[in-house]
Each structure stands twice: as structure tokens, then as C-alpha cells.
Amino acid sequence: MKFYPVGNNFARCDMTEKHDDQNVQEEQKEQQEVSLYEKLANRTAEILEEGRKTTDEALKKAKEELASAGEFSREQADKVGNYVRRDLMENARMAKDAVVKSVDPQRLAAGAQSAFSRILTSAAEALSEVAAKAEKNLEFHTGEVTSPGTLTCKDCGKELHMTSTTRIPPCPKCHKTLFRKSY
Fold it and tell me: Which residues of the chain have pLDDT under 50?
């Protein structure tokens, strides 16, 4: 605090208090603009979600509503509305870029190849399982009864030709008991 001569007396001039008052006013103005931004952005989003409005139309309607409510002046709403519009446009641009990047033809081709590869791998695995089950169903053992067809020994490859329904004998060549049937 400083004292300055004024006539025969000294007057006190407190510059710190003036500076503090100015800081408080600036902080209040900033908080008010932040509050307006949030309200304006939220109301614009609500209007857009309701449908049938472009971004600019929704923002204009939100500004009018908030200014009409008396919380903010039209000038404040216009100023902060420009910030909201800027940010909405930037978010839209980033979303568009993300979509374009994800739909890049080279990425799509690679993605399609990858998907096709996964499909083929799954199909191959499924077919292998079916083949294993079919192979299991085509396995016959000595002592079982079988209809006409050819039995091939799984150990030595000797073929037994069955012309009628019969009980399966052991392999005449290696005496093993496991066969595969073909028709």
C-alpha cells in the first residue's frame, strides 16, 4: 500500500485491491462463458438427437433459447456459439477422417482377406472334424458284422472284398483287427 500526497494530506492508493477486483471479474466472466459453453453444447446435442435439424440450425435454436431465458446476452451466446460450432466441426472432421481411414480400400482388402482366411480356416477345421468322424464311422473291427463292400486293413493295406453281409475276420495277411470300409 502506498501513500501519495494530496494537498496537505496523504491519500492511500491500493493498486492491489483494484488488480484483485479485476482478476475476480475476469474469473467470473470465464466461468460464465464455460457455463454457457456447456449449456449451449448440451442443448445443441439434445436438439440434434431430436432430429430434423442441421448442426447450424440446432446451434442457432439453442442460442436463441438460452438468450431468451435471460441467463446470457445474445452477444455472449453468439461468441460462445462460435466456440461450440468450431469444436463440433472439428469433432465431425475427426470422425469423418476416422471413418475414411477405417474404410480405406487397402485396409478393406486386407480385412476381407483376413476375414476370408478366418472363414476358410474355420471351414477347414470343421471339415477336418467331419472327416475324422466319418473316418471313425468307416472304421470296422474284427468280430463286427458288416454289409457288402471292401475292407482295407489299416496296418498293411490288404483289401478284403465282402460280397454279402458277414462277420469281419482278422486280416489274412497281418492278423490285425482294424479296417476301413469303402463301398
Answer: 1-4, 6, 11
